[in-house]
Design goal:
The complex is a heterodimer of chains A (about 250) and B (about 1050). Chain A is an alpha+beta fold. Chain A has eight helices and twelve strands. In chain A, the strands form four sheets. Chain A has a four-stranded antiparallel sheet with strand order 9-10-8-11, covered by helices on one side. The longest helix of chain A is centred in the middle third of the chain and has 22 residues. Chain A is elongated, with a radius of gyration of 29 Å. Chain A starts with 15 loop residues before the first strand and ends with a strand. Chain B has about 1050 residues and is an alpha+beta fold. Helices cover about 35% and strands about 20% of the residues of chain B. In chain B, the strands form seven sheets. An eight-stranded antiparallel sheet of chain B has the order 14-13-19-10-11-18-15-16. In chain B, strands 2-3-1-4-5-6-7 form a seven-stranded mixed sheet, sandwiched between helices. The radius of gyration of chain B is 37 Å and the shape is elongated. The chains are: A alpha+beta (about 250), B alpha+beta (about 1050). At the A-B interface, helix 4, helix 5, strand 9, strand 10 and helix 8 of A face strand 20, helix 20, strand 21, helix 28 and helix 29 of B. Chain A: One of its GO terms (cellular component) is cytoplasm. Chain A: Keywords: Cytoplasm, Nucleus, Ribosome biogenesis.
Chain lengths: ~250, ~1050
């Protein structure tokens, strides 16, 4: 006969999040509250009792098997369970709870939106788009945050997707390149100008060529390397403006 | 009622004696539009029966739906006055205005064009906040007001007052209105009074004559009415009725019918002191009781049989269908409307009391023509001459002057030239026959679906009879010219003709300057050609060929030249008219964006149209890229959004709270803590070296040491003032020499900066004098033009800031062969990045000086670029070191502040202070305005707290306080955003978390959250209190 399944003898693990750590060939677990472990790790929760259900270290939380003293000693070289709990908390792997995941996603999305807003402009007006417009367009473009990539990578991905939905462009960088005209200058100039979006200003000064360029920020490295290699370190690259946008308030 | 032909009205326009320009003003829902309806009905434009229900002048859909007027609209009416024994035709240009506060700008535009105003007051509600505002505006613009006490029927049916009570109630309301007028008058007189001769407070008031000012039924400028029931009377009407029966002279009767008089039937004369002797005042006995009994019979007892008898007694002819009516309200309308017709009472009063346009008062002409702050004698003779043609309003004058008070949008299909002409009866008949024939045909086909269309057809037909039968409008109108802007204007002098060329004088035009008077050279005047001229008939327009002085007119073809208001004149000697005195300035800022991001261009186009159409909306693009509109209030926002969605942009839009930007700064270390206890400084605290930040580049070859110091406020102010100059300076190419003007400006800024930095504390880090310090200035930030400095205190020689833009070229820098020169721009850019986005919430910094104490590169033959480009490493290191240096000092948020002025009366003062206090405002002053019971309060309010401020203020003070907001300055919030209570007193005072005290943290976190930065807060506050929602496990 099987055991009668009644609510009273059924132990439920509600409001419990388990953090596991494998050490010394053994698996250790601790019972924590949900939605609290990440706060602990980011140091915004300082009260350990708000994080741990109990200070006991388990080998299996759901079965209620506590770890033995000698096992702990063998694996952690200490027997103070609170200390071991803290170590497991900081190093162990965990299931991220729902609300935590949500808040992490939200933060990341809004930081992506903000960096898109900061990096891009409307090519017609050369003004930035407001964050809410970008948020909406990203939604339309079915953009989803990739948790395993950082904000910058996500941002670049987002800009790529946005291009199909919105007239959008990276705001251009203003650069000044100076090099001597003699050393194959003509060829170099051609190569540099090809990489730039626009040449704003160009002048010769005693056989030195000064070019003021507007470039896509992605090309900065390329131009830098090109100039450095071609002129053997004698060419000069100067960053004049990080982004060129119209920023003043305009009243109709 | 006969329909009045437009051509008759055009004829009347020439006779100025018979033209009146009036507007209707009142508090919201006091019955302006209903009254206007009754007046419109008198001209047969709408039926008498529909008057009061149709709201003819509310021709916008949302006006009809909401039941409030949102714009001022004009209509020209014909009135035949039978008074004084001779018949006279009059042309009344009537402007109906909105009563809601949010549309007070529309009221201002209406008032400017009129000579008189009908003030409507609901007798049940009494004087409202807007009534006060209207009366004030009337007084300022010097219009002649007349009063209509409306909704008398509510006293009878709703309040069930006895006639005697009603009489006392009416006196009280009248008293209220006069009290408001009196206080406006008194404060004006006192304001104009010469302060030096102030020996007796009452002196000025006693001398000035104010008898003309007040409303009084006996002088005829008050009418009692029920616009909804379609009747109105003045004392004069009843005097005419009773003079024979009472055997008194009509003039005498007019004087005693209102007031504390009773009728002595034996002596057949009026006696004063009715109240004293407990007699019925004559107004009750002869006027109110009659009306009361009428209502009693018709509406209460519903005694139908008596109706014909009454009608006969009053000499009225009731049509058979009027007698058949079952609704008592309609019966009242039928009987009382004929007995005491509203249109004649009101219009008679208007014609009698409002001056015709050519009797414009001297003062008003002067106020309009010449700026108030200029002595008349200083004006050239040509200008003074204009006043003559202005005051006489001569249509024959060569000087044409017109004032455009607003641009009203009109749908193309409503323009008269786009409509077929009105049909003659014969044509109508043929059309009717045609439709009938078609109906017959369709009937024969006998199809069910067709039948519905036929009924539709019949309906259409009946509506077309009134209007003009139109073929379906061609729907190929291009989007561009769907709306035409018609200038809402009044001709003050001369005659305006189609095709005329006039000067459009902008507000800066000043004929006192000779160059302004020479044609072709005047900088603020342009030539415009008058397009079509229209007469406003509510929503419709009627074409005119010419309009003589003194009339209100619509002018087409000006939308490219005029944005909102303008003065048109044939001579350059005319001044630009003084700006409209607008009662409220726009204060509610909201951001508008399209629901579909692709619709952005449409939105921009729509916003431009909106800007032109609405006198009181401000449209702008914020630096964040948001489109911000600034409006008068919530209802105004709704109207703007509705306009955008329905007509101008035709897209769905979202409305949101606009983003408020902050700044970040550092301050000198505090000497007292949050509960004003002195902080004891230990030697460790005083050690400056702790504040210095040190950073190495990634490859450990470059080292930077930086300290951040707060700049003195004078220096910040100086740099702030010249931001635009520095911006321009940084944009000029290097090798170009500066213009003389710029060079001297630059030199003077340098001197001022030296003066400002005289007491700049350097904590013994350097012994340089202020002159040397300023000459070692490396860069400004952010974006080369901000209020933050990068100072060079190292052995490195930075390019000279004060002349670099002019002289030093790169070759010179390079020839010095300092390896650090190559990375100059990287370092400066690192500083620019940090000063553009500080560590608190990535907002720009303000007033921070970063002093670089050390910058060294140890290149012992190693390749600097081994770990990626060294320039990039320098940039990152510079950015990091500035950030750290900033964080080593006490950090503060800086918020933009509005300065706010509020005029409020004494009883609402407390509530107003509560609202300001709740929003962390600071009161600067609150003084009683002399002569009135009003206080004018000045306060400062953080911009971030201003959203819905006006709304809350109005709600809390029942609309009696109207705040006006204006950006004032940036202010440091003197709370550390990371502050937590530490000392015992602080813990006691604020508790452990100090939630309430730390406003700076709240602001900082809100910005950080918006930007997706890390916010130090927990996902779940109390771990134990989480609920488990899943059931079946």
């Amino acid at each position: 006969m099987s055991k009668i399944f009644t609510p009273t003898n059924q132990i439920r693990l509600t409001n419990v999040a388990i953090v596991r750590l494998k050490k010394g060939g053994k698996r250790f677990e601790i019972a924590c509250y949900k939605n609290k472990v990440l706060s602990w790790r980011s140091n915004s929760e300082k009260d350990i009792d708000e994080v741990l259900q109990t200070h006991t270290v388990f080998t299996n939380v759901s079965k209620g098997q506590a770890a033995k003293k000698d096992e702990l000693q063998k694996a952690f070289n200490k027997t103070d369970e609170t200390e071991i709990c803290k170590e497991i908390l900081s190093k162990g792997e965990l299931q991220v709870s729902e609300k935590e995941r949500q808040s992490v996603l939200d933060t990341q999305l809004s930081s992506i939106i903000n960096s898109v807003a900061a990096l891009c402009v409307n090519p017609e007006t050369r003004r930035p788009y407001s964050a809410s417009i970008i948020e909406k367009s990203l939604k339309d473009a079915h953009f989803s945050v990739k948790m395993n990539k950082n904000t910058k990578q996500n941002t670049l991905e987002a800009i790529k997707m946005l291009r199909e939905h919105l007239p959008i462009e990276r705001s251009r960088m203003k650069l000044r390149v100076s090099f001597a005209g003699k050393e194959g200058g003509g060829k170099l100039k051609e190569a540099v100008v090809k990489l730039a979006n626009a040449v704003e200003h160009e002048e010769w000064e005693e056989s030195t060529l000064h070019l003021t360029l507007l470039i896509d920020p992605g090309q900065y490295r390329v131009i830098d390397e090109l100039v450095r290699n071609e002129t053997k370190g004698k060419g000069l690259l100067e960053l004049l403006e990080l982004k060129e946008v119209v920023e003043n308030e305009e009243v109709f | 009622m006969p329909v009045v032909e437009g051509s008759d009205l055009a004829l009347l326009q020439r006779r100025q004696q018979q033209v009146r320009n009036i507007c209707i003003l009142a508090h919201v829902d006091h019955g302006k539009t209903t009254l206007a309806d009754s007046l419109v009905a008198s001209n047969g434009i709408i039926s008498q029966r529909m008057a009061g229900k149709l709201r003819y002048l509310d021709n916008r859909q949302d006006e009809q739906e909401r039941g409030i007027t949102m714009k001022s609209s004009s209509i020209s009416l014909h009135y035949k006055d039978a008074g004084n024994g001779r018949e006279n035709d009059f042309l009344v240009n009537l402007i109906d205005s909105p009563g809601h506060v949010d549309f007070s700008s529309e009221v201002s535009t209406a008032v400017r064009l009129c000579d008189g105003a009908i003030v409507v007051v609901d007798v049940v509600e009494g004087v409202g906040a807007q009534t006060r505002a209207c009366l004030k505006q009337i007084y300022e613009e010097q219009l002649k007001p007349v009063l209509v006490l409306n909704k008398l029927d509510r006293l009878i049916l709703e309040k069930q007052m006895e006639p005697l009570d009603a009489y006392f109630h009416l006196t009280q309301v009248l008293e209220q209105v006069n009290a408001v007028l009196g206080s406006i008058f008194a404060s004006d007189v006192l304001a104009r009074e010469d302060i030096t001769q102030k020996d007796n407070q009452e002196s000025a008031l006693e001398e000035v004559d104010d008898s003309e000012l007040y409303f009084s039924p006996s002088s005829g400028n008050v009418v009692f009415s029920s616009a909804y029931d379609g009747w109105a009377f003045s004392v004069r009407d009843f005097a005419a009725m009773y003079d024979k029966r009472l055997e008194m002279k009509r003039e005498e009767l007019e004087q005693v019918l209102w007031g504390d008089f009773y009728y002595n039937s034996k002596k057949k004369c009026a006696m004063p002191g009715a109240q004293e002797k407990a007699k019925k005042p004559m107004f009750v006995q002869f006027v109110l009781e009659n009306i009361w009994s009428m209502y009693d019979i018709i509406a209460v007892r519903k005694d139908k049989d008596k109706l014909p008898a009454i009608a006969e007694k009053l000499g009225l002819k009731l049509a058979a269908r009027d007698l058949r009516l079952t609704d008592p309200k309609l019966q009242i309308k039928a009987v009382l409307g004929q007995w005491l017709p509203i249109d004649s009472s009101v219009l008679h009063m208007v014609v009698q009391h409002v001056p015709p346009p050519h009797q414009i008062s001297e003062e008003r002409a002067q106020r309009l023509l010449y700026p108030a702050n200029i002595q008349l004698s200083s004006l050239p003779a040509e200008m003074l001459k204009l006043k003559d043609s202005f005051t006489t309003c001569a249509a024959s004058s060569d000087n044409v002057i017109a004032f455009v008070s607003k641009m009203s949008p009109v749908h193309v299909s409503q323009l008269p030239q786009n409509r077929p002409k009105r049909m003659t009866d014969q044509e109508l008949q043929t059309r009717r026959d045609e439709v009938r024939r078609r109906i017959e045909e369709r009937k024969q086909q006998g199809e069910q679906t067709e039948l519905e269309r036929i009924t539709e057809g019949v309906e259409q037909l009946s509506s077309r009879e009134e209007n003009i039968p139109t073929e379906p409008e061609p729907e190929v109108e291009t989007e561009r010219n769907e709306f035409v802007f018609v200038a809402f204007a009044r001709v003050f002098s001369g005659t305006l003709r189609r095709g005329m060329e006039l000067f459009n004088l902008s507000p800066k035009h000043d004929p006192r300057q000779p160059s302004h008077r020479i044609e072709g050279e005047a900088p603020h005047a342009s030539r415009v050609t008058i397009g079509d001229l229209y007469m406003f008939m509510g929503g419709e327009l009627q074409l005119l060929d010419e309009v003589p002085a003194g009339n209100i007119v619509g002018i087409g073809g000006l939308e490219a030249h005029i944005v909102k208001t303008a003065t048109l004149s044939s001579t350059l000697d005319c001044t630009s008219f003084s700006e409209l005195s607008i009662m409220a300035t726009p204060i509610l800022r909201v951001a508008i964006e399209p629901v579909q991001p692709q619709d952005m261009p449409k939105l921009v186009k729509g916003l431009k149209l909106l800007n032109q159409a609405d006198a009181c909306v401000q449209v702008s693009v914020a630096p964040t890229g948001e489109h911000v509109i600034t409006t008068l209030g919530e209802v105004h926002v709704e109207k703007c959004v509705h306009d955008l969605e329905q007509s101008y942009a035709k897209i769905k839009v979202n409305v949101s709270k606009p983003i408020v930007s902050f700044r970040e700064t550092i301050v000198p270390a505090a000497t007292v803590d949050m509960v004003n206890e002195a902080i004891v400084k230990t030697a460790e605290d005083k050690d400056v070296s702790k504040k210095i930040a040190l950073q190495q580049t990634l490859n450990k070859l470059g080292t930077l040491r930086v300290i951040a110091l707060p700049l003195p406020p004078e220096a910040v102010e100086l740099l702030e003032k010249h931001t635009d100059f520095f911006k321009e300076l940084s944009a000029t190419p290097r090798n170009q020499l500066l213009s003389e003007k710029y060079a001297t400006l630059l030199a003077s800024i340098k001197l001022k900066l030296i003066a400002a930095l005289q007491d700049f504390p350097l904590f013994g880090l350097s012994a340089l004098s202020p002159e040397e310090l300023v000459s070692r200035l490396w860069a400004l930030g952010p974006r080369n033009c901000g209020t933050n400095l990068l100072l060079n205190l190292t052995d490195y020689e930075q390019p000279d800031f004060w002349s670099s833009q002019a002289k030093t070229s790169d070759t010179e820098i390079r020839s010095l062969s300092d390896p650090r020169k190559d990375f100059n721009s990287s370092l400066v850019n690192g500083f620019q990045l940090t000063s553009g986005a500080g560590p608190l919430c990535e907002e720009p910094m303000q007033g921070v000086c970063f002093a670089v104490l050390e910058w060294s590169i140890q290149s012992d033959g190693e390749d600097l670029n081994a770990k990626g480009p060294f320039s990039g490493q320098v940039l990152t290191a510079a950015k990091e070191v500035c950030r750290q240096a900033f964080q080593n000092q006490p950090q503060r948020l800086v918020t933009p502040m509005y300065s706010c002025t509020i005029v409020v009366n004494a009883e609402m003062l407390g509530k107003m202070y509560a609202v300001i206090g709740r929003r962390h405002g600071k009161i600067l002053s609150g003084d009683l305005t002399q002569g009135s019971g009003n206080f004018s309060v000045t306060c400062l309010l953080p911009v971030i707290e201003s959203f819905n401020f006006a709304q809350e203020m109005r709600k809390q003070t029942s609309g009696l306080a109207c705040p006006q907001l204006m950006f004032s300055h940036w202010e440091v919030i003197d709370i550390d955003p990371f502050w937590l209570p530490t000392t015992e007193e602080e813990l006691m005072h604020f508790g452990e978390k100090a939630d309430s005290a730390n406003r700076a943290k709240v602001y900082m976190d809100s910005v950080r959250r918006r930007k997706g930065l890390f916010v130090d807060e927990q996902v779940v506050e109390h771990a134990e209190k989480q609920r488990t929602l899943s059931k079946n496990k």
